[in-house]
Amino acid sequence: MARVGVRLDANGRVAARERLLDATSALLGERDTLDISLNEIAARSGLNHGLVNYYFKGKEGLLLALLERDAARALSELEHLVGQNMPPLTKLELHIRGVINVYFRYPYINRLINVLQSGNADMARELARIFIAPLQKFQARIIDECLRAGDIGFVDPTLFYYTVIGACEFLFHSRNTLPYLSGPPEITSKLKEDYADHLVRFLLDGLKIRSEQPA
Amino acid sequence: MARVGVRLDANGRVAARERLLDATSALLGERDTLDISLNEIAARSGLNHGLVNYYFKGKEGLLLALLERDAARALSELEHLVGQNMPPLTKLELHIRGVINVYFRYPYINRLINVLQSGNADMARELARIFIAPLQKFQARIIDECLRAGDIGFVDPTLFYYTVIGACEFLFHSRNTLPYLSGPPEITSKLKEDYADHLVRFLLDGLKIRSEQPA
Predict the structure, then answer these.
(1) Cα-based distances in Å from B200 to A150, A174, B138, B205, B213
(2) For residue range B106-134, what is the model confidence (pLDDT) as tens digits?
(3) What are phi and psi of B8, to 5 degrees?
(4) Which one is the CATH code of B59-205: 1.20.1530.20, 1.10.10.10, 1.10.357.10, 2.30.110.10?
(5) Phi and psi at residue B65, in whole multiples of 5°?
(6) What is the rounded distance in angstroms from the CA atom of residue A89 to the CA atom of residue A103?
């Protein structure tokens, strides 16, 4: 869990590396683009911009480190959920709501993933290693619990991953076009909750009307 | 339907504008990036690269025109489907399979949408106008038919859009990371079909085991 904690320097202050990540996170959260300059990051953090190169070997490395930090927090919450003693179907529902909350909390995360994903092969491999593979692993464990409890029919965990994450991320991914479509022009807390309810119902129960009476 | 047809010049040859779009489509289909140069487009089409500026006012305009052409073809197929005389639930299934086929046929389309979507507000509005709004409209008609037939429970058409398109596009969106995860390292025809089967079952029936006997 060391990666999740905040590193302090010898004087107990938040270390420069963390301050650069915090500044980048704050700037990305305020804007609709990843185009922030090293000078802006330096100004926000109160540090020399040369430190970005020192700690991260440039902006791409800084963005990857930020994703790694955000992903570690989200994955640690998911790991906690997997270990809980509760009905497997409730875990599955909480997981879906959790994914939506991560995208809501870090509005820049899908943009970050997109850029890293469409970059070079090294970046794609890093992204798979730090985020996608662990996420798939935790999902597969929840699915397996649901299956063994007899709650759900068989589902391929890999295809499940693309369905759930794709459906969650696309709403946030699309926010620039929201003002030009029917519905709310931005992602409010209410839209986020409505979407979570919709998705949970959709994924668990499907669209078709069930012919049986409620139990 | 004029937009969908191929424009010919006075001598019956495919017009220069179409040849530039065809060359761009072919190049984008071969590569994993939108970074193709005007010189490459010129060489592939056998035309002077100044014509890109003449017809499209630059590369961004060319990419938007290409998306508009691909979208028009896909939307025209969807319009045809909506007008068919068949059970509404079958239309819904064929629509979901159709969306996956569009992403399979135009492997560059999500990259194109991403770039345009994260661009300036004019581009986002154009994207909403030429693609997203008409797609939502056709989907809402199919959903309404299913509802009136008593086949499905209520579903918000806008949220449905984000769920279905997001789940479809994410598989294709993620193809750079596929080699580093379990499962096939690339999107084969079989993976595409498996995903379509999975998604149709997921969206229509949901994950939960139904307690009633099959009818």
Answers:
(1) 21, 23, 18, 8, 21
(2) 888 888 887 777 667 788 888 899 999 99
(3) -110, 150
(4) 1.10.357.10
(5) -65, -35
(6) 22
Q: Does A85 touch chain B (CB under 8 A)?
A: no
Which chain A residues have a beta carbon less than 8 Å from that of B158?
181-183
User: Which helix (H) or strand (E) segment is A165 a member of?
Assistant: helix A157-173
Selected residue with higher pLDDT from B114 and B180: B180
Q: How many CA within 13 A on the CB side of residue A189?
A: 0
CA-based R_g, chain B, Å: 20
Angstroms from B44 CA to nearest CA on chain A: 24
Cβ distance of B199 and A163 shorter than 8 Å: yes
Q: List residues bridging with A8 in a β-sheet.
A: A14
Q: How far apart are CA A203 and CA B206, in angstroms?
A: 5
Tell me: the pLDDT tens digits for B60-115? 889 989 999 999 999 999 999 999 999 999 999 999 999 999 999 888 888 888 77
Residue that the structure tokens 């069930």 belong to: A210
Contacts 24+ apart (CB under 8 A), B43-52: B45/B16, B45/B19, B45/B20, B46/B19, B47/B16, B47/B19, B47/B20, B47/B23, B51/B16, B51/B20, B52/B20
Asked which of A110-119, A137-146, B5-14, B131-140 is least confident by mean pLDDT, the reply is B5-14
Give the residue from chain B lying closest to A132, CA to CA: B181
As a whole number of angstroms, the longest Cα–Cα distance in chain A is: 66
| Model ipTM value | 0.85
